Amino acid sequence: MPCRIWALVALLCTLACAPDGADPVPAPGPVRLVRLATWNLHDLFDARDDPYADEVRTPARLEADLEARARVLRELNADLLAVQEVETGDLLQELARRTGYQQVVLREGNDVQRGIDVGLLSRLPLQGSRTHLADRLPRTRGAPRDSRFSRDCLEVHVAVPGGLVLLVNHFKSQAFGGRRAEALRLAQAGRVREIALGLAEVPLAVLGDLNADPDSPSLAPLKQPPFLDPLEALPREGRVTWRKGRRDSALDYILLNPALARRLVPGSVRILEGEAVRVASDHRPVLLDLWLPDWEAQEGPPSQAGEGAPP
Fold it and tell me: Which domains can be identified in the chain, with CATH numbers?
């Protein structure tokens, strides 16, 4: 399928996939088919021994880890890919070099225990990014006072006409913490909702490893309107994104606000499976396709800045 689809076809397709009661897309015009995805890369550590509890790879193991992830990324073929569990920006830059991504965003986050961060790989021009690692989370019963994001809520602005915002997250792990961790995830979800509602006029996606199944109370702030979870269209048995032994969970999400949901391509949401994925990570990538305005048809060159606060 060609990457540039012009006005009439674009308008018909977007109208066909609009949720019930949604307004049509703003003005018809040239659009492109864009794939949006998220994937937890599972402990992508480098070969340097840091003062925190990271896992130090040998050069041979690091090369195998990078190539295993790169193999999946080539199959995934996402234009915008949110990632979790990456130790450094240099590692993400190397992964980008192997897979043809021009833009890389990664900020050091709040995980001082293991040093894993969230980031973004992009083939589209970026307008800027903003960290929320210092944000105070809403007061939540059971969560520590003055709680922060476990890693970050990385806000990335994509330079397409009309705007596009991605909020990349990796919530508190289920491995330890019990009710306290559940309360912290609820507080994190509440803060993400606040950020997203503050950008309600802009097409926006909340995506990443939220470390909770869809019916978990901790996700309530993000499972309520105005957000759409396209993965609800999949059968329950096909909704698994994390598997370890006999344990199955649906931990990874791409949630859309109404302005972006109108651009969702019908039937495009899916979870990538296969032996290459199982070798590379304990998580499965989640992907969907969108019709986005053609950024090369806008007047003037888009910003190429990958860092700094968006304008």
Answer: 4-297 (3.60.10.10)
